[in-house]
Amino acid sequence: MTRKVADCRRFPSESNCTLRIAGEEDEVLRAAAEHAVSVHQHEDSPELREQIKEFLEDEKPGA
User: Fold this and answer.
1) H-helix or E-strand containing 27?
2) Fewest beta carbons less than 10 Å away: which of 41, 46, 48, 62?
3) Alpha-carbon span 24 to 11, nearest angstrom
4) CA angle at residue 28 from 17 to 18, to 5 degrees?
5) What is the pTM assigned to this prediction?
6) Rounded average pLDDT over 20-31
7) What is the number of structural domains in the chain?
8) Count of Cβ atoms closer than 10 Å to residue 53 Cβ
9) Is residue 17 part of a domain?
10) 49 found inside a domain
């Protein structure tokens, strides 16, 4: 199974967040949603999780 990556550096933010989360898709989705709520003050919702899921990328070997 290909690991997935969520990388905050792809999106401008006031905090200039550099967090990168990698793992299996369900792990990354859960952690990225928790991060978006606790750090970026987003509201946890099915819509937020769908947006995050759309932005996940396959992890490149050696990254």
Assistant:
1) helix 25-38
2) 62
3) 21
4) 15
5) 0.86
6) 97
7) 1
8) 15
9) yes
10) yes
The DSSP bridge partners found for residue 20 are: 7
Tens digit of each residue's pLDDT (9 = 90 or more) over 34-57: 999 999 999 999 999 999 999 999
What tokens appear for 33 in the block? 């949603």
The phi, psi pair for 9, rounded to 5°, reads -65, -15
Domain that holds residue 33: 4-58
Helices (H), strands (E): how many in the chain? 2, 3
Query: Residue 44 has which token pair?
Result: 């946890």
Closest CA to 52 of 13, 11, 16, 12: 11
Q: What phi, psi does 51 have (nearest 5°)?
A: -65, -45
Which whole-number Å values give the CA distances from 25 to 4, 7, 14, 46, 55, in the listed order? 5, 13, 26, 16, 11
- Domain presence at residue 63: no
